[in-house]
Amino acid sequence: MKTLLLAGTPEARAIADRLATDGVRAVASLAGVSNAPRTFPIPTRRGGFGGEAAQERYMRDGGFEAVIDATPPFSTRISARTLTLARRLGMPYLRVLRPVWQPQDVDLWHSAATEQDVARLIPKGARVFLATEADAIDKWADLAAGRTLFCRREDRTADPFPYQGGWIIGQPPFVLAYEMRLLKTYSIEWVVAMNSGGPTRAKLDAARALGRPVALLDRPVMMDCDHAQTVQEALTWLSRQNA
Fold first, then answer.
1. Full residue range of the structural domain in which residue 72 is found
2. Averaged pLDDT for residues 210-233
3. Do 123 and 168 reside in the same domain of the chain?
4. Tell me: the pLDDT tens digits for 96-136?
5. In the sheet that 26-30 helps form, which strands lie side by side, from edge to edge?
6. What global pTM score does this model have?
7. For residues 218 and 156, what is the distance between their CA atoms, to the nearest angstrom?
8. Measured between alpha carbons, how far is residue 75 from residues 68, 190, 219 in Å?
9. Which of 193, 189, 198, 33 shows the shortest CA–CA distance to 115?
10. Do 70 and 125 fall within a single domain?
């Protein structure tokens, strides 16, 4: 079955590697957030679809027969739209969602459902590291009131930082020593992150090592569809569709 792989996570890259090795017809789709994304071993398109109608045409005219959605866990808009289109076109759809992070006894984690909850949680005057999506910086206006924010992004742009604080430019993956140095350099008192799960948790380990509290945004509610937590589960699902 020709497969559309919505990418943007380490799991998507691993799935693409396996699809290429197994000779499965597939196309990877990247949202194009980074100016220098790594290449994939299968044909790859970059950039948004241009809306629901354009995405439906692409999925239909491209001859796709299945969709594996391995976008980041908080990419709810594209996931919901793709599930709707897959059902409309009669294509099996799989959402790949790795397990959430779980705290250890020494972690100073605070769960938050919304950005506004984070603002109510973190005291005024705090210096905050936003390890969140840079393209959603406007969501943090409430937190910015009376606090100094530093948000990480992969690429330098001409966009000024909208609040007191600034951008931190960095390309993943980030190791523990780097994250500890970052928190010390910027005198960070709180870390804000999304509970994305996965191996890229060095920022959380750095917060633990330095005794910094973390405000962790809860994972969105899981959609009613087929799910997989691992690369192997996703490949097994695709094999069943081909059977």
1. 3-98+221-242
2. 96
3. yes
4. 999 999 999 999 999 999 999 999 999 999 999 999 888 88
5. 44-46, 26-30, 3-6, 66-69, 93-96, 226-228
6. 0.87
7. 28
8. 14, 24, 10
9. 193
10. no
